[in-house]
Amino acid sequence: MSVSNNKAPLSIFDNQDSNELKERQRLEELKRKAKLQQVKLDKRLNKQKILMGAFLGQVLAGESEDEKFIQNYFAKNFPAFLTRKSDKELFASMVKSLGGDIGLDEEAVKANDQPTEQEHGQHKQPDDTEYTDDDIRELFSNQQIDALAPHDDGYRG
Asked: Which of 1, 39, 96, 103 is the least buried, fewest Cβ under 10 Å from its Cβ?
């Protein structure tokens, strides 16, 4: 009495299909892990930006000589950093309170197609400091912090 097996014999093509499926599953798992790591990195960077913004907010409200220097630097350079009108509107009162000009008046004139001679030149903010970007870096440098690795797990913010 012979026992017959109802299964069809496996071909080389069946093995190939199985291997391709496994490879696709591995690839999808790697993509999922990479996306998860990107989300974690984005969250970390957002937290850093929020904390730096909070720190800068405190500095801009300060009264010391160093804080006054940073306030002047901010009022002079921050408006050029902003490109959207809505962002400029958001920071207009802050920049104005620090003695700067956000440039919304100039944008309104441009929008009305009434260019003036002043608009062709760049608006210069009065600057009573002679500090350079290197001076700024030195002002904010801290040897203990600078010695930390960029992705130190001991980071607490």
From this structure: 1
Give yes or no for a contact between 51 and 59, defined as CB atoms under 8 angstroms apart.
no
> Which of 89, 106, 97 is CA-nearest to residue 72?
97
Residues with Cβ < 8 Å from 102, sequence gap 6 or more? 79, 82, 88, 91, 92, 95, 96
Using the structure block, give the residue that is written with the tokens 């912090």.
145
Contact of 82 with 91, CB cutoff 8 Å: yes
Which is higher by pLDDT, 57 or 4?
Answer: 57
Residue 122, amino acid: Q
Phi and psi at 148, nearest 5°, equal: -70, 145
Q: How far apart are CA 92 and CA 84, in angstroms?
A: 12
For 22-55, the pLDDT digits (tens) are 999 999 999 999 999 999 999 999 999 999 999 9
Among all chains, which residue has been given the structure tokens 């199985």? 18
